[in-house]
From TrEMBL:
Pathway: Cofactor biosynthesis; adenosylcobalamin biosynthesis. The gene is cbiT. This is Precorrin-6Y C5,15-methyltransferase (Decarboxylating) subunit CbiT. The lineage of its organism: Bacteria, Bacillati, Bacillota, Tissierellia, Tissierellales. GO terms for molecular function: protein methyltransferase activity. GO terms for biological process: cobalamin biosynthetic process; methylation. The keyword Repeat does not apply. Keywords: Cobalamin biosynthesis, Methyltransferase, S-adenosyl-L-methionine, Transferase. Gene3D superfamilies: Vaccinia Virus protein VP39. The keyword S-adenosyl-L-methionine applies.
């Protein structure tokens, strides 16, 4: 498996899941060939692209026009097939069935997203989200418990990189949250 470096993606002013967080997130999702992934708040499409390269069928929903442009540009650059949806989750999502879901951005609609997952994420399917704010982290943990997800994991990741001058530049700490939908 060859991972894509951040600088290889076509970038803009839309947030992108960085390399260190992206590899951990895809690992927590357990992406494999034949998986069906829904990427909510897809940004530049970095999670979608990497997952498609691993053989997953991907739907990516993004509400920002620039994000849609970047996802399409990156999907062309890396020659992958991704179903790109312009809109907001959950209201602009069709009734599709998938076994993996990544939440990169929720637009403040986590409650509605989890209601959508209740009907569309397969039993034993995995949901994984990346959160910068404690409010979204806490709301997600509460929703995972309310909907009786199992194998709930939470990790706080802090990373930094060295710039050309040798100075370490810290990035925002990210909480990675994972849960597995029960078949109850």
């Amino acid at each position: 498996m060859k991972w894509i470096k951040d600088e290889d993606f076509i970038r803009g002013n839309i947030p992108m899941t960085k390399f260190n967080i992206r590899t951990l997130t895809i690992g927590h999702l357990g992406i494999e060939k034949g998986d069906r992934l829904l990427d909510i708040g897809a940004g530049t499409g970095s999670i979608s692209i990497e997952s498609a390269l691993q053989g997953a069928l991907v739907w990516a929903i993004e509400r920002e026009d620039e994000g849609i442009r970047l996802i399409n540009a990156n999907k062309d650059k890396f020659n992958v097939n991704i179903h790109v949806i312009k809109g907001q989750a959950p209201e602009d999502l069709a009734a599709i069935s998938f076994n993996k879901c990544f939440i990169g951005g929720s637009g403040g609609k986590l409650e509605g997203i989890f209601a959508y997952l209740e009907n569309n994420l397969e039993n034993n399917g995995v949901v994984c989200g990346n959160f910068i704010t404690l409010n979204n982290l806490n709301e997600t943990l509460n929703l995972l418990k309310r909907y009786k997800y199992k194998e709930i994991e939470t990790h706080l990741i802090q990373s930094a990189y060295m710039d050309r001058g040798g100075l370490m530049k810290g990035q925002n700490p990210i909480s990675i949250v994972k849960g597995v939908k029960t078949d109850d």
